[in-house]
Amino acid sequence: MALPQLIPYHSSSSFTHQPSVNPHAANPYPSFKPFLKPSSLSQSRRFHRLNSLRCSASSFPDNHHTEPPKSDDVVELPIFPLPLVLFPGAILPLQIFEFRYRIMMHTLLHTDLRFGVIYSDSVTGTADVGCVGEIVKHERLVDDRFFLICKGQERFRITNVVRTKPYLVAEVNWLEDRPSGSEDLDGLANEVEGYMKDVIRLSNRLNGKQEKETLDLRRNLFPTPFSFFVGSTFEGAPREQQALLELEDTATRLKREKETLRNTLNYLSAASAVKDVFPSS
């Protein structure tokens, strides 16, 4: 089961994307194809995004922090611009067939298996905040294409472009969420989970699907990895996902997700009421 079309949260301080990286390519993001079929969470507890990204709560770390690099570390990272947003803990299947990115894969498979995934589209350009993808499984085909399974790790911000050919390489700083002070993060996470369950239930009803017992969506995740999991389920709203990825405060991220889910729930409630009055519509 995927979440329905979301009604993104908007406020006076809402995210405004300012592209700061130009890979100097005619195509703003490389060619890629999904190779795993999307599935329904109601059957397999998996979400899918853009028919190429699948993630589940079990993909996300149980601990709030898993010894991430220090935020003031500067490292060079090969960058893979894509029309999607990767979150820490999410699973990303990719098929690599463009020549320059096959070169990248040959290098990565002999080094540390990590590259930066960054959102790019023809309207907003290329973002400067992304997420490290670590290759956890790969298959090289006879025609030199690659099938990859990657897992999202640390977030980063691009600080300097080192080179653009044959593929983009940049210096990056690591991003971590700031302490949320006196905010009740567990309470916020539980509220978000409640809204997600309501959206799932009402969406299934509108689509004529059999109502089943609501899933345990949080699966004992701490608030920060849970907030990333929630963001990864916002299918079809990559700019909203990018805004969530860039936030450096767990409470703010959860509140924004709660508002998006609440707006979506209000829309679905209205649609359900219309359907009850006009069953054939």
TrEMBL record:
Task: Name the SUPFAM superfamilies for this protein.
Answer: PUA domain-like
Q: Which domain of life is it from?
A: Eukaryota
Which SMART domains does the entry mention?
LON
Where the record annotates domain Lon N-terminal, the positions are 74-265
Keywords in UniProt for this one? Coiled coil
Residues in coiled coil: 237-271
Which PANTHER family does the entry link to?
Answer: ATP-DEPENDENT PROTEASE LA (LON) DOMAIN PROTEIN
Q: Please state what the protein is called.
A: Lon N-terminal domain-containing protein
From which organism does this entry originate? Answer: Hibiscus sabdariffa
